[in-house]
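Hi there, hope your week has been kind to you so far. For a while now I've been wondering how a particular protein folds. I'm sending you its amino acid sequence along with the backbone structure tokens. Could you read through the record and tell me how the tokens relate to the sequence? Take your time with it, there's no hurry, and the full record follows here.
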Amino acid sequence: MCTVNAVVASLSPAVANVEVRLLGPVQVSADGRPLPLGRAQMRAVLAILAVEAGRPVPTEALAARVWDEDPPRAWREVLYSHVARIRRVLAAATGGGPVRLVRQPAGYLLDIHTELIDLHRFRRLTAAGIAEHSDPARVALLRPALDLWQGVPLADVRGGWADRSRTAWYQHRLDAVVAWADAELRLGHGDRVTVVLRNLVGEYPMAEPLAGALMRALAQAGRVAEALEHYAALRARLAEELGAEPAPELQALHQAVLRDQLPRPASPPTAAPAIAPPRGAARTPFPRPAQLPAAAAGFVGRREALRDLDALLDTPGHPSTAIVSAVSGTAGVGKTTLAVHWARRVRERFPDGQLYADLRGFDGSGLIVPPSAVVRRFLLALGVTGERVPDDPEAAADLYRSLLSGRRVLILLDNARDAAQVRPLLPGGPAAFCLITSRNRLTPLVAVEGAHAIALDLLSTAEAHTLLESRLGADRVAAEPEATDRVIVHCARLPLALGITAARASQSGFPLDVLARDLADERRRLSALDAGDPSSDVAAVFSWSCRALSDPAARLFRLLGLHPGPDIDADAAACLAGTAASRATILLSELTAANLLTERSPGRFASHDLLRAYATDLCRETDPAAERDAATRRLLDHYLHTCLAADRLLDPARDAIPLPPGEPSPGTTVHRHGDDAQARAWLTAEHQVLLGVVQLAVDTGHDRRAWQLVWALDTFLHRRGFWPDRSRMWQVAVDAAGRLGDPVAAAHAYRDLGRADNRRGHYTHSDEHLHRALDLFGRAGDRAGQAHTHRALASLCERLGRPRQALRHDREALALFEAAGSLPGQADALNSIGWDHCLLGDYAQALRCCRRALDLHRRTGDVWGEATTWDSIGYAHHHLGNHPDAVECYARALELVRALGDRYFEADTMTRLADTHEAAGDSGAARDSLRTALDILTDLDHADAEEIRARLKALI
């Protein structure tokens, strides 16, 4: 029989690392990392194609399933956009390999090995398992099949198709569960199935085959009364809701249970070895402590963590030591809730008892419980009388481990401070299971004791919704969907914060909108999340984690509240703290180990909004204003000087910044990039951070630095096509220049704001800003500034369909650049004049101007200018009928512009290349070029995408 692993191993590495999941939220992962899938409709498209993997789905059928027979007017364009995005996700995962989404005459087809899709793997395993005659083989196939379920199938897809699919898959799952349970019971493994069946019966209370399997499991375990009670409850439910009696098969099973006539297992389970009580222990029947706390009401989600814990119990073979699992996570994330919920759910699998201790590792009182005190309590619970508990801590620990040897006991150690606190409490025998929760990661336990680490993150948005529904009722949450979403965002999806807010809503009766507005005020948010005692006060709970930090790490945590987010690297953290990057890395690791930070990607650290708000408040209360100001200046200078260095690599021919920065503040680290590729990578990683840093500069009164930062960002924002960001940043620069009272700064800001608005199609605003800039440059006698502004006005005229006005502005720009002695400016103007001649139909004159421009661009080393000029020359050749020459020129332009990372320019050139291919009669190449352009413009959310879609539709 071919196993899943064997099948997957036979695939190429580029394919085998990919998995598509439908039995839960729709997800594509590569190397274990989920890939971005965008909106729900895109997930629906992928899910439909994955269900039909290997078979084409007609376009109309695909649309009917996505939109429930009611697609939007432009559904073909929208559908193609989703398909294009899915293609990019798959290409990123496989490097363009054989996992592909292709268009065929019969429709769209997902070309992927079905073993890489969990639904198809589930179907294959269950079919093979049910067909097996050997019970061990049947279990070996069905157990991994059932483990593929990760919650509600297609959880984030709505509509009739998804509902119908879920119904069919649920039935398939029930059949597989019953077949698996029957096989386990015949093997005498009733303890393995009881908990699973109980949980599923709660989900499917009317499923009679499932009820029968549970009755057999309970009866096999000797719990006949529970089996009979379950039958009675099911019979009453059937009578009340359906007016029917249980099926004859279930009635016969009921009689067999009553008469003790169920078949015996073929091979009864091996009993735990009996041992003699160790010296010092009372020779009485072994007590069965049941110390687990009550489960919290309204437990939701955490399916992956629960599945991981379940998997540890089902580990094949017998480990030589106790199984230890360490659940870690930030304060208030619900570690104890998860641990208690799971422990109570599986306690029947530990017939020798359950021990529990709150170690108070992060208690507000600071009274950490010593391990020796816990050992004494556990010994008393295990039947050792007080006078027989050894005074020596090591002897007591030895007695504790001896008592547990060979016993199936669950030990829950809650709220541990560190590994040293829990080591004396770990059992030594293989039958016990020890579950630990801690705000720290307990890495030493993982490294030395082989503990299984489970990191608990914030709730998903869907889980947060469910939590609020469980506390407030689904109707109340559904009545205020927007307010509910805002509450979830402001509570950062932290279970403690959501629980406090739900309690306030329940007790006060206020609309959720009122509470959402209260939470929206950052200054009042933490005080609004205080339910009246330290354990239900978010700020107090956070403070207990901070008390466990070293002083330098605590100081860095506070200073991180000055950073605008969303994440930070070691260089920026070093500047905040005024220390070396190597030292900052150590402190960041300490904060990460304490779950006050998360390393979202290698070298980049973040915390959720409530922790950030707490750090900000703590910094204001603890650190003097002078220290905060110095840290802010170092941070701003780090980003400013690093960004300026990156910009110089991206555009070496660019004029020098008109407002030069001074030397960086003492203690500032400036990152140096090796080349333009590294500079682009840094800017891409820091994109959102840099936008926030500009606003931070404004908010803290550093207008000059704010203006300089915007200038340093412009090349990157322009070439990546971030038009809204570019407009917003230059508006900030205009305002900053006004506060500075600097007309030169204002002139540059108005000019580049005009350029940005032109790109966005805001032509009236663009014209106003550019003429304002031209006036300011004229008053200052700045010829180069005037020339660049004329060039911007020429571009605006071109977009407005006024090529002769554009030519006048470009000629004025050339004269001004010549007077200013600017060779790069002259080259730029000559290329633009050539382009104007193209638009006016004088292609021979256009080539003469552009060739002069190309020579000057090469002399000055302006790669971007060279790329634009090759594009212009290609356009001229196209209209002269020289199609091979045009294709070659466009290819040169694309090679240069891709290296520069200017995505809009690439799309623009690809569109013109498509024109040339179409004119030359190569419609296939034209379609490929247009598709590439459309993918880029769709990513940029650019209005030109609609025109390309229409052209592509006409070509197809």
